[in-house]
Amino acid sequence: MSLSSSTWTVLRRNMTKVSVLFSVVVVLALLFVNGVLGTYHRHGFAEDGEVGIYELKKGNISLRLTNWGATIMSLLLPDKNGKLDDVILGFDSVNDYKNDSAYFGSVVGRVANRIANAQFTLNGTRYKLTPNEGKNVLHGGPKGFSDVIWKVTRYQKDGHTPRIIFSYFSHNGEEGFPGDLQVSVSYTILGDNHLSISMKAKALNKATPVNLAQHTYWNLGGQNRGNILSEEVQIFASQITPCDSQLIPTGKIIPVKGTPYDFLEPRTVGSRINKLPNGYDINYVLDSGQSTKLHRAAIVRDKKSGRVLELVTNQPGVQFYTSNMIKEIKGKGGFVYKKHAALCLETQKYPDSVHHPNFPSEIVYPGKSYEHVMLFKFTVE
Question: Which InterPro entries does the UniProt entry name for this protein (predicted)?
Fold first, then answer.
């Protein structure tokens, strides 16, 4: 069958359109992959408002994160024999983090820890917050920073300095807090097995309390090992801020000497934990005082694996928590986490500072910035 000249003309025009369309698709795909449009990660494309999984890798250290809650999902580290283990509790699926009440690996805020009676007064104005732990507020309220999607503003998976930066805009009145707040957190692998975490915030139009914390659960023997009672801990703090039965600070600052809270010298977690009603969940007043220079907060050793964690920060306090409230949570690989399955070292301002003038202030004023640095140094011995 022969085609007329007019038919050939139509076919040529259509083929030209298809060719142009194909070229456009190829160009757009290349732009996406190279980061010009959207954000590319190993599970596909992550637009604003989409949840993704990201990986940072350098040498023997491998870190997986998600922009849901700016959360650390896993961290692989070698033991004294070179065997890699995941030393962080968590879940295999991002969806599980959306229903997580333990704050596994997430950034918590606008104000971490507790605020008594879900209210505070600032510059003559009383602000009522949304309670989520009885009549009090814990870790920012029912929908704190751990339960929102953060925007990925920078991502370099490997190379000399693997890094990812998440950002979030917290609007005026969110969970009852005053003023707009621009927040970011960066995770960077430095040198030989060092993990740097930097959390920043800027108050845009109103004074507001800000106290961010990174809520990773550590088990240096491996997330599926069991409990952390045999891990050895040293905390560079001579004092604590004691709490009432609701874990609200009384406002006092007392010495740890002669109490089960004394970790000035290295001791195993389990050595005196039975002298406490439930376990450790207390803010330590670091001996550095209110210095904003980097100072040591704690050292954790797991003698069986040989792994050592040293934590350095610019914050005045650290919350030592031994996962007392963990009860039969199904985690990664189907392993079931139980009480004392991990420990948390949450560097911070002191809890409930808005009600205690003798505590370091956590108020950030318009145009001023908040910066919180944590540096984890991992070694093997």
Answer: Aldose_1-epimerase, Aldose_1/G6P_1-epimerase, Gal_mutarotase_sf_dom, Galactose_mutarotase-like, GH-type_carb-bd
